[in-house]
Amino acid sequence: MPSEPNNDYNDPTMLVFEAKLEGVKPQYDKLDEAIRTARFIRNSCLRYWMDNRNIGRYDLSAYCAVLAQEFAWASKLNSQARQASSERAWSAIARFFDNCRKKQRLN
Asked: pLDDT tens digit string along 60-85?
């Protein structure tokens, strides 16, 4: 059974940042590439967690470095953004376990 995350996050609010950008096509293309890369990192971390047992938050952070070495285009995204993507993956895992616990309490 996979290790259950320690979830310190109990605030149900969502933080949303909005910005209006005025740029040119190459700038938008770079932004889209960065977003796609961040999604790839997050989804790869989720898959890594699903395929392996006893994976924790720090294992996912270390896996970001592995992904950056494996894929040259992933290394173009700075390490802080890669770490943020792995943290988002861990937050999704923690939320999944919290929802499972809540559902068990209701039954």
From this structure: 999 999 999 999 999 999 999 999 99
3-state secondary structure the chain: CCCCCCCCCCCCCCCCCCCCCCCCHHHHHHHHHHHHHHHHHHHHHHHHHHHCCCCCHHHHHHHHHHHHHHCHHHHCCCHHHHHHHHHHHHHHHHHHHHHHHHHHHHC
Q: Tell if the pTM clears 0.85, that is, is over it.
A: no
Domain count, the chain: 1
pLDDT-wise least confident of 35-39, 50-54, 69-73, 102-106: 102-106
Supply φ then ψ for residue 25, to 5 degrees. -50, -45
Q: 36 is in which domain, residue-wise? A: 25-106
